[in-house]
Amino acid sequence: MFMRVDKLQANLPDPTKQDPNAAAALRELLGGKYGEMSTLGNYMFQSFNFKSKSKLRPFYSLVASITAEELGHVELVCAGVNMLANGPDGDDTGNGGDISMTPFESMTEIRDAASFLSNGGGATPTDSNGRS
Length: 132
Hints:
With 132 residues, the chain is mostly helical.
């Protein structure tokens, strides 16, 4: 069972500008071969498949605790990806401003256009090139 607290493990500084390429690079940390999703999966399934939990409780507790920590890492990296992909609000209303005139302007230098087109450049369990 996971308990969700709507708070990141660390405060992330607001980006000064939208940077979809930096967001794509950060997605490598999320979904790359040795990224947070891979680590989360490894520890999560180790804890699910752990034998003799009562006999080996300290070891099981360690693996289960690392699983929860990795879940927090995934959330933190996703927040960073989303912040870089979207950039600062740019206005005082907090609604992101009017992007209707140039909705694809931020894509001109993006390495992974599919991410932008399919989910607005947000975090997905993929590497920096959009591969699962």
